[in-house]
Amino acid sequence: xxxxxxxxxxxxxxxxxxxxxxxxxxxxxxxxxxxxxxxxxxxxxxxxxxxxxxxxxxxxxxxxxxxxxxxxxxxxxxxxxxxxxxxxxxxxxxxxxxxxxxxxxxxxxxxxxxxxxxxxxxxxxxxxxxxxxxxxxxxxxxxxxxxxxxxxxxxxxxxxxxxxxxxxxxxxxxxxxxxxxxxxxxxxxxxxxxxxxxxxxxxxxxxxxxxxxxxxxxxxxxxxxxxxxxxxxxxxxxxxxxxxxxxxxxxxxxxxxxxxxxxxxxxxxxxxxxxxxxxxxxxxxxx
Length: 287
Ligand SMILES: O=P(O)(O)O[C@H]1[C@H](O)[C@@H](O)[C@H](O)[C@H](O)[C@@H]1O
Ligand SMILES: [Mg+2]
Prior knowledge:
By secondary structure, this protein is α+β, with helices and mostly antiparallel strands. It is built from 8 helices and 15 strands. A hairpin with a 4-residue loop joins strand 7 and strand 8. The site of magnesium ion has 5 residues, from strand 4 and helix 7.
């Protein structure tokens, strides 16, 4: 049998580039900002427009496929991963960065069949870097093959995490307590690009050893998960168990030694699963 998902992969690359160009253009103009689940969970017309462009183009070519998109889910569409061919899309990963002109913004498109991720494309559109990975076929940044770092000594590592968009003090305390413990191991440094998709690509290309977060969504990490795995890295749950795309928690690392060392320090807090019963999110826009 040939390569059943090659045309889907090519379509993902094409539409990611197109989406990135729309985001770059929109960043030059005035950006009207609305909020979703909290006052720091930002959304713009560009997020919605780009998601429509991506899903519109893919649906035209693949009318039988299913779609999970960040902005569609916010409007009340289901977020269930079934065995059917399913696209998992974050049109603008790093919306806060986009709004502020902080230069890491990514289009993230993944494709799963039988609940297995087949490929992932992360277009870091302000840097103009196309990261991509296909199951069993390696990971690339533009035309260059990428690999995770070979560092096993946590003391020689850089670790990424993020603060997320839930600012309840209890959670923020746990996030900072975890970060403090990791910093005091000590590691070489802690970083955060503001986009989970880009963070995972930084793990994949060996710039950092690990990225972990609780509270991310499947669309933030699905494409990055393929890229990390294909670059030789590992994906785990924050409790050391198997990675679960819908669980809203993840550790991605260059190897098990680094992953398990970080996991020892992570203070876990609850996050509702992505496939929990649907809650439409009310959007607030200032007049
Ligand atoms: O909402 P977008 O798509 O910009 O993505 C999120 C990031 O990817 C997270 O890592 C990050 O922690 C934030 O939750 C951020 O919202
Ligand atoms: Mg995102």
